[in-house]
Each structure stands twice: as C-alpha cells, then as structure tokens.
Amino acid sequence: MSENKRKSLIESIKDKGKTIEAEMSFFDHLEVLRWHLIRSAIAIVIFTSLSFIYYDFIFDTIIMGPKNPQFWTYRMMCIVGQKFDLGPDFCIKDIPFNIINTDMAGQFTLQMNSSLLIGLIFGFPYLLYEIWRFIKPGLNPNEKNSASGFVFYASLLFILGILFGYYIIAPLSINFLANYTISSIIQNQITIDSYLSSVATLTLGAGITFELPIVIFVLSKLGIMTPTFMRATRRYAVIVILIIAAVVTPTPDILTMLTVSFPLFLLYEISIGVSARVDKKRRKAIGV
Q1: Contact predicate 179/250, CB 8 Å
Q2: What is the pLDDT of residue 256?
Q3: At how many degrees (to 10) do helices 106-135 and 150-164 cross?
Q4: DSSP character at residue 59
Q5: Using an 8 Å Cβ cutoff, are 194 and 177 in contact?
Q6: 3-state class of 138 per DSSP?
Q7: How far is Cα 81 from Cα 206, in angstroms, rounded to an integer?
Q8: Which of 30, 149, 162, 181 could form a disulfide with 207 if both were Cys (CB 3.0 to 4.6 A apart)?
Q9: 180 is a domain residue
Q10: What is the tally of structural domains in the chain?
C-alpha cells in the first residue's frame, strides 16, 4: 500500500470515528432530554391526580366561579360601580345562561379534561425548571448569568397571566357573551364542553401572553427582535390591545377597558425594556 493511500485510509477512519462520536453525543442528549420530560410528565400526573381527587372543590369553586354572580370579579365591579356611580349595568347580578350536558360520557370527560388542565397549570413551573436544567450545561458563563432567573420570571409571569385571565378576561368575556342576544326567543343553553373550553382558552391564553417578555428576551438574544422595531410598532400594538379590551369588556365605559388593557400595555413596555437591555449588552460586548 502506498504512503498516500495509507494516509487517506487513516483520515477516513478518523472522520468515521468523529461521525460516530457525534452521533453518540446526539443520542446521549436525547436520552437526557427524555428523562427531563419524563420527570415533568410525572409532576403533571401528580397534580392531575390531586385535581381528580379534590374535584368537587375544583368544579364548584374554580371552574364554575365565573358563572356565579358572587364571583370576586363581579363583587368588585359592584363596589367600584357604586363608589364611582357608574350605573346599574356595571354591577352584574345574573349570568343568564344554563349549562347542559349532551354526551353520555360528557361529565366524566369534563372531569378528566379539567383535571388535566389544572395539572398542566400547576406543573408548568416544574416543566420550565426541567427545560432549564437541560439547556443550562450548553451555555457559557455569561449566558448562564444573564438567564439565571429564567425559571423564576417565566413562572411568575405565567402565574400572573393565569390570574389575570381567570379573574379579569374570563368573567368579563363570559358575562358579555351571556348577555349578548339577537332575539328574546333564543335561550342560551351552553354545553359544559363549550363553557370549559372558553374558560380554559381565555385563562391559558392570558398565561401564555404574559410570557411575552421572556419570548422577547430570547428573540433579542438571537438578534431577531430589537427595541427600535418594538418602539416603531408601538402604535399598532396599542390598537390591537384596545381592540382586545373592547371585545372582552361587558360595557363600553372607558374604566373597564382600561382595567383590561393596562396590564397588556405594561407588558409591552416591559418587553421593550427587556429588548433594550439585551441590545445594550450585545453592543457593549462587540465594542459598539
């Protein structure tokens, strides 16, 4: 065998060894990720099981809360309405619709789905913790320091969003839709699936929306989002937020609209600040 052929064979063997090593590393990472996901799933199953066991309280107090005229949000609206003389329409005394079940297994499915929903909500912070544990070893020291509060802030924003969606968006939307009629001969008979879907969508949607600063942080780190772009599009964001507030509020008064829209405005401004901070650090790192 000539010298050139021997060198070529050695290089091929080395390249093959590197490829095998890279493939093993990839599958090792998959195995690590699998265990992180398994632990997250176990936590969600535990919370789901607890929700299933204590379902009477969850259904009567939590799920059916926005249907009850004595719900915290409605009571606060009555107090505010009386204090500022906003009129009788601002104080909600009745939610005019009946909830029915039309499927044989509807109530059992309701218990399973809503228990899983509660399990996902309570297990979400632990899921974030497991994701952070997976990506942390691949970060350099500066990235670890800048993202050290990821789990805390992401969990805090998610919880605040859930509370905002459950106590503000969901009850106002349900009251608006329940009182919206096109004819007096039509009676609102709402299926339990439709009611649960509405409450879950509005509540989880708010929780996910409140993750906007975290999303902006990641996009800014990747160089996709800049504070200049967000400031330039602020006017459009204001219009979108006002439209959302107008849709979910039960009355056209400005106070209720501001109650819904203010946290969303604040969220957008916080996101601009987050993006500006990331952009400043990146410019400082490259000496600009």
Answers
A1: yes
A2: 65
A3: 150
A4: I
A5: no
A6: helix
A7: 25
A8: 162
A9: yes
A10: 1
Look at residue 92 and give its three-state secondary structure. Answer: coil
CA distance 278 to 103: 52
| Residues contacting 78, CB < 8 A, separation 6+ | 90, 91, 92
Can you tell me which residue has the tokens 């409450």?
199
**Three-class secondary structure assignment of 179-193:** HCCCCCCCCCEEEHH
Residue partners of 19: CB distance under 8 A and separation at least 6: none
CA proximity to 202, closest of 194, 192, 191:
194
Q: Which residues contact 220 (CB under 8 A, 6 or more apart)?
A: 226, 227, 274, 275, 278, 279
Query: What range does the domain containing 25 cover?
Result: 3-210
- Residue given tokens 């790192």 in the structure block: 285
The residues facing 241 across adjacent strands are none
Say if CB 213 and CB 130 are below 8 A apart. no
Q: What are the 10-residue block averages of pLDDT along the chain, 288 residues in total?
A: 51 49 61 87 95 92 91 88 77 87 90 93 92 81 75 92 91 83 85 91 88 87 84 87 71 66 88 87 71
Pair 106, 192: CB distance under 8 Å: yes
Residues in the chain: 288
- Within the chain, residue ranges assigned H as helices are 3-53, 55-57, 72-83, 106-135, 141-146, 150-164, 170-179, 192-209, 212-221, 227-232, 234-248, 254-285
245 Cβ neighbours under 8 A, 6+ residues apart = 257, 258, 260, 261, 264
Instruction: Please check whether residue 166 is in contact with residue 203, taking contact to mean a CB–CB distance below 8 angstroms.
Output: yes
The continuous run of DSSP H or E covering 99 comes out as strand 98-100
Specify the pLDDT at position 40.
Answer: 93
- Please answer whether residues 161 and 25 qualify as being in contact, where contact means their C-beta atoms are separated by less than 8 angstroms: no
